[in-house]
Amino acid sequence: MKLVAEFDRIEEIAGGFKTHYDVFKYMKALTQELEMNAFLIMTLPTVDIVEIGATKIITNWPAEMVDYYDGHNLLIDSPVIRRMLRSTSPFNYDVDIINATRGEGKKATVVELFKRHRMEKGAYFPVHDAAGGRGAMSISGERNFSMIELAKLLFIATLIYDRLSQLTLKEQHPPVEFTRNELDCLRMTAAGKKGHEIANALGVSEHVVNNHISSAIKKLGCTTRTQAVVNALRLNIIRC
């Protein structure tokens, strides 16, 4: 009964989140309560995303860590991402062990980075929202979690990701209209198509395709096509 009451309390708290900042404050407090050092809530890449900065929703990862991670292309061939795309089961990680299959140079870079920020252990929790969007929550520090803790945190991750999805849909955005060509270019980019492939499919030049994508990027308030695709998927402007 005590566990049921705890789960009911968590569900009530999650349902009361009104803003992304409410979620941030809750996750920060939860991380401290667990005596861990960092949390990350992210969308799982549906295109060839190569930057963690383009996938994160809410995190307290140090900015310099995110910049270093992206600057060294550490998201590419990430064993953590591969595992979460294959399964929805939560798992503990040890940065030394989970990166064992990386090339020696990249493994050493990842291990040193996470140990430097006292994030060498922790767990990841793959989740999804009602629209089918895939995401994950991670909590990192210097220990792993018990099975009971994993179960509780997976419940929290599921509720939080679903609530974030609801909050995103309720965000007030100025009305923006996209042309059919802009949406087609975004969809095909999300599907992994290159500029010349999109041009061939639409029967236009690659220059025209780039113009459509640039226009969509501006309308979405982004700076890169990767960010634009992620935002368009997150806001249900396009679907893969």
UniProtKB/TrEMBL annotation:
Which keywords fit this entry according to its UniProt record? Answer: DNA-binding, Transcription, Transcription regulation
Q: Note the Gene3D superfamilies from the entry.
A: Transcription factor LuxR-like, autoinducer-binding domain (3.30.450.80), Winged helix-like DNA-binding domain superfamily/Winged helix DNA-binding domain (1.10.10.10)
- Ranges for domain HTH luxR-type come to 171-236
GO biological process terms held by the UniProt record: regulation of DNA-templated transcription
The record ties this protein, via InterPro entries, to: Sig_transdc_resp-reg_C-effctor, TF_LuxR_autoind-bd_dom, TF_LuxR_autoind-bd_dom_sf, Tscrpt_reg_LuxR_C, WH-like_DNA-bd_sf
MF annotations from Gene Ontology: DNA binding
Name this polypeptide is given: Transcriptional regulator, LuxR family
- Lineage, highest ranks first: Bacteria, Pseudomonadati, Pseudomonadota, Alphaproteobacteria, Hyphomicrobiales
